[in-house]
DNA sequence: TCAATAGTTCCGATATTCCGAACTATGGGA
DNA sequence: TCCCATAGTTCGGAATATCGGAACTATTGA
């Protein structure tokens, strides 16, 4: 299986990050990956709130987050493990992710 | 002419802000409205960088920014004046707009 | 009233998103 | 080794959103 594409930190674009997190479902997924601290398999997001997310849509959402540079995905056996790249991205765009996650938390995403 | 819709501060949604600013053209327009401090007519954005923006597209972009709660638009005579709502939005989502504009500035939007 | 300026609306072409169905990759038995 | 179950990806078509030219509306000044 070909390795998944992850942008280098210098290639991460603000518009990609904003686009990725402008979808409440993706924002919720990313909040969980970033906030839990621990690595999450995609199957952990089969539902967001009470909304069921089809596998194909979920796969697409994870891909958008990955290509935006927000998460890193590695296959471990049969499952994919998703790590946040928060600390990297925060170096390049200080405060950006925190402000976005705070905004969603306050608005009650 | 019917008055333009502006969301109340409490109705401003993070996803709308991120979506509005995930387009580099809109981000550039908003940077100019927010950063110049002074009010700008739409015609000030007939071009962004060296890219010409058609009037209809420009009108659409301004509408997206307005409906996201980022700007306030008022007709003054024959032209429309666009004010930023930065300070309001910053009360509701502290640091969000600053972090986004900093990110674009750093990436060289 | 007419012309000029500033924006808006309409609408067709293009691009994106969504999701079910089929497919691929990996690991664990028997 | 072969088969099955699990986890995720890809394909493809329907629904939706975006872009921009042309026509339209609103306002001011002559």
From TrEMBL, chains A, B:
One of its GO terms (molecular function) is DNA-binding transcription factor activity. SMART domains: HTH_ARSR (SM00418). Pfam families: HTH_20. SUPFAM superfamilies: Winged helix' DNA-binding domain. Residues 16-98 form the HTH arsR-type domain. This is ArsR family transcriptional regulator.
């Amino acid at each position: 299986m070909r390795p998944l594409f992850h942008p280098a930190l210098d290639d991460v674009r603000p518009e990609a990050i904003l686009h990725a997190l402008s979808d409440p479902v993706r924002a919720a997924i990313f909040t969980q990956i970033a906030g839990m601290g621990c690595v999450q398999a995609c199957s952990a997001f089969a539902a967001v709130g009470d909304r069921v997310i089809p596998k194909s849509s979920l796969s697409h959402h994870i891909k958008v987050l990955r290509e935006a540079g927000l998460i890193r995905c590695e296959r471990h056996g049969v499952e994919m493990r998703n790590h946040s790249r928060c600390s990297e991205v925060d170096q390049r765009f200080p405060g950006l992710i925190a402000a976005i996650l705070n905004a969603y938390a306050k608005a009650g995403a």
